[in-house]
Structure formats: C-alpha cells, structure tokens
Amino acid sequence: MQKTTLLYGLRAIIEAINANETIDKVFLQKSLKGELFNELEHTIRKSGINASYVPIEKLNRLTPNNHQGAVAQISPVAFYDFEELVNNVMSLEKTPLFLLLDQLSDVRNFGAIIRTAECTGVDGIIIQKKGGAPINGDTIKTSAGAVFKIPICKVDHIKDALFYLQASGVKVIAATEKTEQTLYDVSFKEPCAIIMGSEGRGVNPSVLKLVDDKAKLPLYGEIESLNVSVACGAFLYEAIRQRL
Description:
Elements: E1 5-8, H1 10-18, E2 23-29, H2 35-47, E3 50-54, H3 56-62, E4 70-74, H4 82-90, E5 97-101, H5 107-119, E6 124-128, H6 137-142, E7 152-155, H7 158-167, E8 171-175, E9 192-196, H8 205-208, E10 213-215, H9 228-243
Parallel strand pairs: 2-3, 5-6, 5-9, 6-7, 8-9, 8-10
Antiparallel strand pairs: 1-4, 2-4
Helix pairs in contact: 1-2, 5-9
C-alpha cells in the first residue's frame, strides 16, 4: 500500500507549494510566529491549500524530525486539470458520467466511492480543494487501488465545477432527501454529473439551488439515511441500468 508522503520544515513546504506539488493538507503549529512562518501562511492561502492549526504534540506524532512547526501531506496521486478532463470526455463517442463530492470528510467513504466509481465507468471525480477528505493510505486501501485508475480533479469550489459542467451540456443531479423524486424518477441517460454531499450535512444548500435535478433513495426502515458510499453506489448503478 502506498502511503501519503510527509514533508516537514517551513522553507521546504514553501518551495514544494511553489513547485506545484500535489499537497493535500498542511498542519501548522498553533500560536507559532516568525517571518518564515508568516510567509508559509501567505503561500498556503494564495494556493488555496487546506490547512489546520494543531498542537505541537500532533506534529511530533506525525514526524520525529525537526518539523519547525509545519508538516505537509503530499498526495500520492497527481490530480487532473478539471476543464481539460471535461473537454476531453465530452469529445468522446460515449455518454459522460461525472461524480462530484461536496466536502466528503471520511477517507474510507472516499475510498469506497472511488472504487465504485471506477467499477461503474465514471469519467472523473471532482472534489473541492478545501474541506474534504485527503487521499492517504486509508483512501488507497479502501479503494483497492482504484484511486490510481480514475481521473480525480480538484476545484476551488464545487459551484465552479457545476457551472462549467452545465455550460458544457452536462446535466447536474444532486443526491438529496430534500425532494419528492426518487432516483428512479430521474433520467441518467444523457450526459450527467451526480453530486454526493458530506456525511453530516449532505449537499450544501447553496449548491442545491443550482442543480438541474434532485433525487433521493426510497427508505422503508427506521434509519433516516444510508452511508454515503452505499447511496453513491445505488445512484451510479441506476445510471448504468438506464444506459444498458
């Protein structure tokens, strides 16, 4: 299993960001000051990289080396350019199917979704730069290696991707309980993108206002919702069923 690479040291992380390394997240020591630390904070903000301020004990657990108050996780996969991927897929003689994940937080759910997406022929997974689960060793293991076989893109905001997909002729469908329609009432036969929300909140309400269609899974038990990776599998296989 390939693990996420850790990079430590203020100057080293600044240089990695400037060299466009695929950094998932930076852990910064709480209350640390200094000119170089301030430069790193500025570089992180400018690049839109996810960052967390943590106690020094957390950094010490991540690496036994002299981290200088900063540790970065470098993703083991390279991310695709979103617009280039969409344009390439739309030019193919097939019906595109994209998957957008709106700030999914659990790495195992993320890995399971990647695995199902690869099995169902999804053309690309789009995630937000900030607020979502990273691609780490657990993600890779749960995906059974599928993370290396399917294009994954990062965008500044899910809305950016939504607008671009709609402008490219792709219908955007949100998986949400805030509708009377089930997924069996919605057509997945045309080019489409399915949005799955986070485990706790679901699809962001501001994103829901912009989608072309909404659909939910019928539930007959006492539990009000399914695990997001299970729900995503149901949606993807309904799309496949309709297209067979």
